[in-house]
Amino acid sequence: MHCPFCRNPDTKVxxxxxxxxxxxxxxxxxxxxCGKRFTTQENVLLMVAKRSGVTEPxxxxxxxxxxxxxxxxxxxxxxxxxxxGQRVEEALRATGAxxxxxxxxxxxxxxxxxxxxxxxxxxxxxxxxxFESLEDFAREIEALRRAGSAEEPAPPPH
Length: 158
Ligand SMILES: [Zn+2]
Known about the structure:
Belongs to the NrdR family. This is Transcriptional repressor NrdR. The protein contains 5 helices and 6 strands. By secondary structure, it is of the alpha+beta class. A 3-stranded antiparallel beta sheet has the order 1-2-3, with no helix packed on it. Strand 1 and strand 2 form a beta hairpin. Residues 3, 5-6, 8, 31, 33-34, 36 line the site of zinc ion. Zinc ion (ZN) binds next to loops.
């Protein structure tokens, strides 16, 4: 890694420690050329496994771009989109897995998107889950209605 100040190609590690959650390592480095210090961080790359078998690094920007498309014309701001992207990434990282199947990424998006905007949720779900008929939509809308009335106590099981 080169020095971000003078571009010297050689730097020295003077201290390494884990972040509080243990998910990353921070290194304090110094440049023997200009003497400046800086910090780097090592993270495990979260990989997404596509159905084709190809894996690619998780991209929060990609998630947000996909959700933004589903939110076209809906009252959903950039702040809300950014927050959703963060929630999805945190949820996926919290699984502790280094590689996540792409359908699980989709599932992780559906939850927070349903809270954000029901129409965008249906659009996203229709593409993502491959809705083919009105019945698919009807079933999903029914599920949304049930989730919306969750405060009503369910009948006791027999
Ligand atoms: Zn330097």
